[in-house]
Amino acid sequence: MYAALKAREAGVDVLLVSKGPIGRSGATPFGGTLLAYLDPKWINEPAKMDGASEEDYASTYFYLADEDHIAKTIQWVRDHLLSELEQMGLYFRRQPDGRVLFCPTRPKHTWTPKMGMSGRVMADLLRRKVLESRIRVMEENMVTSILTTGRRCVGATLFDIMNGEFNAVRAKATIIATGHANFLSRRSTGTREVCGDGLAIPYSAGAELYNVEMVLWHASDMAWPRCWMRLHIYPNPMPLTAETSKIVNKNGEVMYEQKENLEITSPYYLQLKRLYENVRRGKASFDGSYFSDLRHIDPHILNEYSYQTQFPKKVGINPTKDMIENAPSYHFLIGGVWVNFATMASSIPRLFAAGGATGHDGVTECMYDAQIATKSALAKIDELPTPEIEQLQIETVEKRITKLLENAGTEGGVSPISLKRQIREIMWEKMGYVKNEQGMNSALQEFAEIRHSEVPRMTLASKTKRFNYEIVDAFDVYNMLTACELQVRASLYRKESRGPFYREDYPYIDNKNWLKYIILGRKENGEEYIRTEQVSLKNKKLPDREEYLSSTY
Amino acid sequence: MNAERTHSVKLYRYDPSSDKEPYYEQFVIPHQKGMRVLDALDYIYEQLEHPFAYHWFCGTKRCGMCGVMVNGKPSLACWDAAQDHMTVEPLRHFLIVRDLVVDFSENERTLTELRPQPIRKAPYEGFPENLSAGKMQAHLDLMSCIDCRLCVAACPKTDPSDPTYKGFVGPYTLVQLAKIGVDPRYDVNLTQSLLKGRIQDCGSCNDCGETCPNQIPILRGAVDKLRDRLVDDGVYKIRAWSIIKKLPLSVRKWSRCKLNLTLGERINEAAT
User: Fold this and answer.
1) Which of A26, A149, B185, B226 makes a 20 to 30 Å CA pair with B9?
2) Do A199 and A320 belong together in one domain?
């Protein structure tokens, strides 16, 4: 949305296509916190309170990130974005004394209006601006393919979920901003509609992907009810208190407490390591039997500043008296479309990517990407001719939909949703936090089996074109298979462990050999390849090798 | 999973492109721990592989897209508990796309049309602007609206099939207008928007506020504050408004809905 607004401001004809309603789907509404990099003078705090640095943030990405990009993002958010958003009308929550709400131990966070709700409010503001700016919006439209001419992006094909119409769009420039949390495993934080589209579709069009093996897991999401598997009980510092949640095993022993590890910016992988140790000792399980404990936190803070705590209350758990059962959820990738981080240009000309689609985290950071991608996309755009599109590419996708509808209701088929379920089960069982070569090879075999034996039998129940979500499910199956297979292949390729990526057959961090991006691509003839690129760190010297489970990244 | 407890779900089905009239399907599904209405719908769709049209994205009370009627009452499927016996129908007062999916686009267009561009009272002087939490409280009260429109389904005055319906935009749109109306940073003239949206048709029954899954004080926090503006501007005259607005909500509901007493609103055309 931010990219569309910036392009519109520049006077360009913009079409915004979203698989769900803009601002109400995808990962943004889940943004719990605004990473704001508060200047100490804004909150009347000593300068030493400033807790964000490039190095700090490189560790969030387990050092598989571009330091220059991170530095520029931090500076831009602090110097430009906060005032732009406030000017647009965003209310950064104030404390009773008028200062912006912040956490005393980690003043780079702020909230609007509550922890757990910030992304939703931000997304709503942008949605309103988009609608008022008369940008053409096609909501609940699924991009089914990226159109190319001579390896150059020239548009996309779209499927309108509401009415079943198929369309093709010609574009001089295309920006992918599909977000990053995908619903690819049994327990996932991804919303219903995000099923690897932002990975599989650009990859199939020839764009390179990177870091797709780097899946971040949440260790402290609600274990039940099922649809709340995306409900994160934040281990991060809370507003106005030095206290953080405690993660407690089934014996009541504290497994993890972020306030003891404040130098670590992203607690998620440390939580996972502690969880794994407890699972091995039989004190917790990956299906539950461990808890978030908020009982030591001031109830006023929980009630006033946290959106999340109303959820346990709704199912009879009082967070000030009871602990909340947790289970891990597959969260998002610190990877995606491989781009030039200075321009956000992908490896296909005229295709750009921003935010979660490129593996970047945080609502505000994603907006930095968006404005860079927009600037790059608009450079000399007036001089570009209107692109020609190849009819054959459009027909191929259209035929796929026609065939699905023609065969709907026939006996002996397999439903798309059952295949989605199978794929998620394979990912949960074999591509969980703990991985090994045998399990991953077996996952690849099972995906191949689905692709070759089950997908051709995929049959819809109804021929209707009105909100026939089975058609979306069918396209999701194609995308999920591609995204998951790529993830397994990259995971097999990385012969070390790092951050949330744990291979029990390589239980060490190998900076000497694997401080590298793993990049996957397809040649014009369809042949797939894997290559690597060295990550250069200017601000940090890492040891060649470290034991994974005892390390802090 | 508790194998003994089950849920009986009667599901509304209707495809306007092919069905002459709606019909219902019945399912008995096993209970899951803490089961929400959405979990029950997911079970039918995913485990029983019985495809029907239903809307949801986040599953955690953020997207506001899973509103349905459960046993005749508006319900956010991801938030409310699955009942042992439940009839699940599409959110009322909206156009049905198919089965449980309704179309919010008309409602959205109306809001975009009615929502004026707010103008800052003073030039913006840089982050963080001088704001007090107290002054922003009224705006904050409305910020947790997730656009689910359960309030519209709950409102007895927004039924387009009711012969007395005159085009009242309903509580959701009023909340969105009030958000900018109560924001101390902005000067905004809402008179035309409110009259065009027929705020005078609000019956003050507070069914909207009672239904809101985020407990937004819709009547007092939005509608009454908008009425205050109209009264202050001399656009709107309400008998004994300063007294009425302080009455307990239950009394207002009773007098308005049971006795059919109106506020005696009169629009001062000259002031509009």
Assistant:
1) A26
2) no
